[in-house]
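Recall from the previous chapter that SMILES is a line notation for molecules. Here it describes NAP.
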Amino acid sequence: MKALVTGATSGIGKAIAMNLHRRGWDLILTGRNEKVLRKLRKYFGGNTEIITADLSERKEVFKVYDFCKDKNIDLLVNNAGYGIFGKFHETDLENEISMIDLNITALHILTKLFLRDFRKRDSGYILNVASVAGFMTGALMSSYYASKNYVIRLSSAIYEELRREKSNIKITVLCPGPVNTDFNNRAGVDFSVKPVSAEYVAEYGLKKLFQGKFFALPSLSTKVCAFGQRFVPERILSAIVYNVQKAKL
Ligand SMILES: NC(=O)c1ccc[n+]([C@@H]2O[C@H](COP(=O)([O-])OP(=O)(O)OC[C@H]3O[C@@H](n4cnc5c(N)ncnc54)[C@H](OP(=O)(O)O)[C@@H]3O)[C@@H](O)[C@H]2O)c1
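With both inputs in hand, we obtain:
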């Protein structure tokens, strides 16, 4: 079995790669940091392949697909992503567009292209890494929250189409709360609640994927957020999120 993992150079993606390696999977790892990718290839050994790519560039997304398309990928892990903190009118536009290109466009393209391949043989797995942020509007992290809403909604629609076709293809959306990775460093904030480990999130996400479950909500607090938000009026939820985000400063 072979998996393509995006954002494999650190955090949740690296933990997913480690976990899959332990389960005996062959890996194709991607990220921008070639030095780290080379180290990982050496560490995993065997049939591990790497491809350096900036997935906020559309042509690089297609480059990764072209590299993989004849390699019989069984599992696509769309994990690469980052967040931007700040008031919407103050955050940098170019950075935000790059984030949207990575968090949404790259995931969208790879999901479609691999899904088409998986449908030809009626098998395959897709693990899309969203966030508990995808269930809410996110003042002070508006575009990031919106991008993760897209990931959940897109994945959910695909899940329903596959279910109606009685397809053997499995799609899972992984929605962690705070995880102890480089994510907050890049967003320039601190944690406002205690984070869980990337290893725990990886194990939980893969377990739910192989069980054929759509939602992977690691930790009790993410389950409470995901289901509880349905019963809270939008304005109140928005105010709560604002306060949680502000506490990160
Ligand atoms: N940490 C959290 O609290 C948390 C919570 C919920 C959801 N998530 C989601 O989990 C996913 C992984 O984040 P993480 O927490 O593991 O953060 P991380 O440690 O910063 O890892 C991000 C990964 O994405 C890759 N990446 C970033 N920009 C890229 C680009 N332009 N092109 C290709 N790869 C790129 C990075 O690799 P290179 O630097 O080598 O490119 C890195 O491997 C993200 O989608 C994030 O939204 C994180």
